[in-house]
Design goal:
heterodimer; A: mainly beta; nine-stranded antiparallel sheet; 36 strands; B: alpha+beta; three-stranded antiparallel sheet
Chain lengths: 541, 213
């Protein structure tokens, strides 16, 4: 007889194997879970946070490209703001998706301007002014992977919201967020925290709990202020070459016509609220050939000169300021209202345009010779009861392809008229034949009569093919109120006129005892040369 | 009849038992040792990674503030960084704060200083300071209601930040190096995370006056 083998003990082996597999699996799962969390944090969330800023800045760049399409010389196709949602002076971009990570960008561009006090205003600027823009851009980076917070996040378990509400401070927001990566990288795992807490525009209006799109994702928001680059910025006289002037008894100061007429006592009266506006009669010289005479109520800058501080210069002297002036080209006249009724100025002529025009679409004339005196009147309309004739702000642009010269050559700008003269060749006129009486003869504003010297073409060696000169000759009485932007021209100013405005040229010479007043309103006026970003902030909420 | 005892049901001999126990003990010992070593290694690696993430967080914090900063100054020992940033959001305690506008973006104002446009948000700026305090790296921001501290990194390992600001003629930037020297790995010199951030809002400095003769 044979005893049967006891097989009950074989079950222990199976249990041991299963237990071992379980333990190993738990260890493996724990390792994988930890690894996934770390991969989330390091690879996805850190990258997404950086890419969200890249997306926001891309939105800003797209907006900046659209803004630059509005430059006078540009003729873009398609035209500016095509495909955007446009409402008045506000433009909203479509949501752009780009990049291998499917980043998204959306931008709001608002036209704005600053007044004489530096206060911000939305909408179009006053006449003669140039548009600035406020660009608000939102960039979003989708997050792949699990909806997990970072490694050492510790959101407050207060049973309430984890984000500050309008009325509290941002730091309370931070406090509510606890510690860790969430302080920095505010990830929308399920809901858009920004809209829920601050509203879509961040101003507390329109708060709503909406799903993040996509979820999870990270969004970052930036605000940029785009400034207009203008030709007459903060300098009474600016030349790229040599400078000589003025007379020993002359002075250059400044004022702001937006604050009222020029007052000669302000520059020596620190108690005046406009005293600071009187100390911007600056001279900028792009070479070392500089002779400064008279009193400068402002700064002096040269490029290699040897000007030294003295009692005659109230501001700073810096002899290490290199700069160049680019050639100036005739802006595009596309969109301007061309009129063929004036092609030459001879004798005494009066011009009343058929329409008022606008600062960006003026009434445009092409003139092939100018030896006479031209008087420009505003457009008038009949209004009121009984009807009376009321002059309207009238914008005129004249392109002169010849010299402007002769004993009687000149222009009279009547009230409400804003004239820009673009000249290809030379100017030689008497001071008293350049009359600006907008708004009045005793208080003219320089920005209403602007001269632009079109730079001659350059030859194969890069030299100008002809010279350009501006001779303003003695003539009394004379109060010159105007601006010159002629980066290729040599200016000679004779006599002792009162001058209100600014000159930008290649060189300047004058030995007259001139009282020269730079108008700070010109900072925002003149032909639009370009745009630049003047400010950058991030909304970190 | 006498039944024979099957050989396969014989008990182990003493020698067999000793060999078996010794072998099992060795296997158990190796397993335990390996487990402990693996766990320590994982913990060290985890700690190392967590600290590395803190390195990244520090430079990201700094870069964010420097990027929007108006000016930045690092101390001589490069352990403290002070940044002036625009007050974009109206905070309780600000002079222009009202019940309805706290927590909303501020409209900018414009000034012309040193022949440059200065776009300002509010009459003053916020001061942000990063500094080392023991094993923590703190960020202090001067808000409307006073300075507020945020601990942005805290590690038992050695985190050594060094930031210098470089001012050029037309721009300014900071370079930051966060050195991590893990305590758990004695022979490790450490890893360094580098960062460079440019100021987007740098203000043009006042020119050095030419001496009066």
């Amino acid at each position: 007889m044979q005893t049967k083998r006891n097989t009950r003990e074989t079950g222990n082996v199976l249990l041991c194997v299963l237990a071992t597999i379980l333990i190993v699996s738990i260890i493996g799962a724990t390792v994988l879970r930890n690894s996934t969390t770390r991969l989330n944090a390091s690879s996805t969330q850190v990258r997404g946070w950086k890419e969200a800023l890249s997306a926001a800045e891309t939105g800003g760049d797209i907006a900046f490209a659209e803004i630059r399409k509005t430059l006078p010389g540009a003729s873009p196709s398609p035209s500016p703001w095509t495909g955007w949602t446009n409402s008045g002076t506000t433009h909203v971009s479509p949501e752009t998706t780009f990049g291998s990570s499917n980043l998204r960008a959306r931008t709001v561009v608002e036209t704005c301007w600053f007044d004489a006090s530096g206060v911000f205003h939305l909408g179009d600027p006053p006449p003669n002014g140039n548009r600035w823009y406020r660009v608000r851009s939102k960039g979003t980076a989708p997050l792949l992977g699990l909806k997990r917070t970072g490694m050492d996040d510790a959101l407050m378990k207060d049973g309430l919201t984890h984000f500050a509400s309008i009325g509290s401070t941002a730091m309370q927001d931070i406090t509510a967020r606890g510690k860790g990566d969430s302080l920095l990288r505010k990830i929308d795992f399920q809901y858009d925290h920004f809209i829920a807490t601050y509203g879509p525009n961040g101003d507390g209006v329109g708060k709503a709990v909406v799903n993040a799109s996509p979820a999870p994702s990270i969004s970052r928001r930036i605000e940029q202020i785009v400034a207009a680059v203008t030709p007459f910025f903060d300098a009474a006289i600016k030349v790229s070459g040599s400078f000589y002037g003025l007379g020993s008894a002359a002075w250059i100061d400044s004022y702001d016509s937006r604050n009222g007429p020029y007052d000669p006592t302000v520059k020596t009266n620190p108690a005046s609220p406009y005293y600071k506006d009187s100390r911007h009669g600056s001279v900028e010289i792009g070479s070392g050939t500089a002779t400064i005479k008279g009193t400068i109520y402002g700064d002096v800058a040269t490029n290699g000169g040897n000007i030294v501080n003295s009692q005659y210069i109230t501001g700073t002297v810096d002899n290490n300021v290199p700069f160049t002036l680019e050639d100036y080209q005739m802006p595009s006249v596309t969109g301007w209202n061309y009129q063929s009724s004036l092609t030459a100025v001879t004798g005494n002529q009066t011009l009343t345009p058929p329409a008022a025009g606008t600062s960006v679409a003026p009434i445009y004339y092409l003139v092939s010779s100018w030896s006479g005196a031209l008087t420009v009147n505003p457009v008038t309309i009949m209004t009121g009861t009984p009807p009376v004739s009321v002059p309207q702000d009238t914008y005129v642009a004249i392109h002169v392809t010849s010299d402007i010269s002769g004993g009687n050559a000149g222009i009279t700008v009547n009230p409400k008229v804003h004239v820009k003269i673009y000249f290809d060749r030379n100017i030689s006129v008497k001071n008293n034949n350049l009359v600006n009486q907008n708004p009045s003869l005793t208080n003219p504003i320089a920005g209403n009569l602007q001269f632009y010297g079109i730079s001659p073409p350059r030859d194969a060696n890069g030299n100008l093919m002809w010279s350009q000169t501006i001779n303003l000759n003695s003539g009394t009485p004379s109060t010159l109120a105007m601006t010159f932007y002629a980066p290729s021209a040599d200016i000679v100013l004779n006599g002792n006129p009162d001058f209100i405005g600014t000159m930008v040229a290649k060189s300047f010479y004058s030995n007259g005892n001139i009282s020269w007043h730079y108008d700070r309103a010109l900072n925002d006026e003149g032909a639009l040369l370009d745009f630049r970003i003047a400010s950058y902030v991030e909304d970190t909420r | 009849m006498r039944l024979g005892i099957p050989a396969k049901t014989h008990a182990f001999t003493l020698i067999e038992m000793m060999v078996a126990i010794a072998t099992a003990s060795a296997i158990l010992g190796v397993t335990l040792t390996s487990s402990i070593a693996l766990q320590r290694s994982f913990k060290a690696l985890d700690n190392y990674f967590a600290t590395h993430m803190q390195q990244i967080r520090i430079v990201d914090f700094l870069a964010r503030d420097v990027r929007r900063g108006l000016s930045v100054t690092s101390s001589f020992d490069q352990q403290t960084v002070t940044i002036n940033i625009p007050k974009y959001i109206i905070q309780a305690g600000d002079p222009d704060a009202t019940a309805s506008n706290i927590g909303t973006p501020r409209s900018p104002t414009r000034a012309i200083v040193n022949k440059d446009y200065n776009i300002n948000y509010g009459a003053t700026t916020s001061t942000v300071q990063y500094k080392v305090n023991g094993s923590s790296i703190e960020r202090w921001e001067d808000m409307g209601a006073g300075p507020v501290k945020t601990t942005i990194a805290s590690s038992t390992d050695n985190l050594i930040p060094k930031t210098i600001d470089i001012e050029l003629a037309n721009t300014e930037y900071t370079t930051t190096a966060i050195t991590f020297k893990p305590i758990s790995v004695a022979d490790r010199n450490g890893t360094i995370v580098y960062s460079t951030a440019y100021l987007r809002n740098r203000r043009r400095p006042t020119p050095t006056p030419t001496p009066t003769p």
